[in-house]
């Protein structure tokens, strides 16, 4: 029994000891584990912060020129020096427009310009507000063509032109020429729209929505493109090499088929443009300027009104849109006539 007791007692004590040891070591292990856990949490936190900082510098911080220059010597935008070769007939100081519509065009788009002059571009007063529509052109090497443009400009007094080669890949220069014109000659206007010759613009609805929105400064709207990637396929019209644009994503921008900004934004874009790296996609370039200025894109309306693609015409539909893309000159005329006769006449 004694033996048994001792035998029993020993293991009990040992067991207790063992238990104590076990208990001790398990607390120790717990502590170790906790410390490890803390360390791991710290490490995860640190790497997150590191990654965030790294991404901030490379991916999202579009204007960290120092780090970017180190990786890619990207050229910044340079505007075309010299005077305008054609200017529209307007005195913005005396008679400031509410909205200036700037339409990128080129020599060959004469039919489209004529169609716009007869349709949405001819509208001078909408809801008591003054509207003007001007065309942005570059120069051609062909002297006869240049003479035609000069004659057209003298006749319609609605052409803005500077001396740069008119090519698709010079669209950023063309848009920035328009921004420069606003800055230098028409900063008294309230809003600017940039659009294209193959776009239909419902100037009535646009004016109505701008008046309803009641925004006057730091305003930029259109068809929002918030998460676009550069196209790296060489055969694409929008191909952009890594040399031209190394980052993986574009900043938020609005489709170049039609965007609207308050005039103060135009002046600010003009002001920062020469510190922004050049990209031939004009709408992305404007997006880069806006990111630098910390101006956020906004919707003009809760429903979609800017259509960067072709949509089927109907009066009821077009009453509630601002832009529709891929419109032929003949369609400009028919859409406009239907819209005006069925809604305003
Ligand atoms: C621009 O125009 C101004 C006045 O209209 C003139 O004095 C100046 O020489 C012109 N500059 C160029 C580069 O043609
Ligand atoms: C336009 O620029 C080119 C060079 O870029 C120059 O040779 C030409 O004389 C300029 N034309 C005018 C009208 O200023
Ligand atoms: C853009 O215009 C400039 C100035 O006229 C010209 O030197 C350049 O070649 C043009 N770029 C393209 C891609 O046509
Ligand atoms: C237009 O620009 C001029 C000169 O930069 C400036 O003095 C004026 O205040 C501006 N006007 C508006 C309405 O912003
Ligand atoms: C242009 O930028 C300078 C500094 O970069 C600033 O002082 C000035 O106010 C800006 N002008 C406009 C019109 O934004």
TrEMBL record:
Its EC number is 2.4.1.-. Pathway: Protein modification; protein glycosylation. The keyword Cell wall biogenesis/degradation does not apply. It is a single-pass type II membrane protein. Keywords: Glycoprotein, Glycosyltransferase, Golgi apparatus, Lipid metabolism, Membrane, Signal-anchor, Transferase, Transmembrane, Transmembrane helix. GO terms for molecular function: N-acetyl-beta-D-glucosaminide beta-(1,3)-galactosyltransferase activity. It is found in: Golgi apparatus membrane. GO terms for cellular component: endoplasmic reticulum; Golgi membrane. Gene3D superfamilies: 3.90.550.50. The chain crosses the membrane at residues 37-55. One of its GO terms (biological process) is lipid metabolic process. Its main location: Golgi. Belongs to the glycosyltransferase 31 family. PANTHER family: BETA-1,3-GALACTOSYLTRANSFERASE 5, BETA-1,3-N-ACETYLGLUCOSAMINYLTRANSFERASE. This is Hexosyltransferase. It comes from Amazona collaria (yellow-billed parrot).
């Amino acid at each position: 029994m004694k033996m048994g007791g001792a035998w029993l007692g020993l293991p009990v004590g040992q067991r207790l000891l063992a238990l104590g040891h076990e208990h001790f070591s398990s607390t120790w292990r717990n502590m170790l584990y906790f410390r490890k856990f803390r360390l791991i949490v710290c490490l995860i936190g640190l790497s997150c912060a590191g990654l965030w900082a790294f991404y901030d510098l490379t991916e999202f911080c579009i204007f960290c020129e120092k780090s970017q220059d180190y990786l890619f010597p990207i050229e910044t935008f340079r505007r075309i020096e010299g005077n305008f070769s054609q200017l529209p007939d307007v005195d913005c100081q005396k008679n400031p427009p509410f909205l200036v519509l700037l339409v990128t065009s080129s020599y060959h788009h004469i039919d489209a310009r004529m169609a716009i002059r007869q349709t949405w571009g001819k509208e001078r007063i909408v809801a008591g507000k003054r509207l003007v529509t001007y065309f942005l052109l570059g120069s051609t090497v062909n002297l006869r063509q240049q003479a035609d443009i000069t004659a057209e400009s003298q006749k319609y007094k609605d052409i803005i032109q500077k001396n740069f080669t008119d090519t698709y890949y010079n669209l950023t220069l063309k848009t920035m020429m328009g921004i420069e014109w606003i800055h230098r000659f028409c900063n008294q206007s309230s809003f600017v729209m940039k659009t294209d010759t193959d776009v239909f613009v419902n100037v009535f609805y646009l004016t109505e929505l701008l008046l309803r929105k009641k925004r006057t400064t730091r305003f930029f709207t259109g068809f929002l493109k918030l998460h676009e990637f550069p196209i790296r396929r060489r055969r694409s019209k929008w191909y952009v090499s890594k040399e031209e644009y190394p980052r993986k994503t574009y900043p938020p921008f609005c489709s170049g088929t039609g965007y609207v900004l308050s005039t103060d934004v135009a002046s600010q874009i003009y002001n920062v443009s020469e510190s922004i790296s050049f990209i031939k996609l004009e709408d992305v370039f404007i997006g880069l300027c806006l990111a630098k200025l910390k101006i956020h894109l906004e919707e003009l309306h809760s429903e979609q009104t800017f259509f960067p693609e072709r949509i089927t015409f109907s009066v009821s539909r077009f009453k509630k849109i601002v832009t529709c893309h891929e419109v032929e000159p003949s369609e400009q005329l028919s859409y406009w006539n239907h819209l005006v006769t069925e809604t305003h006449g």
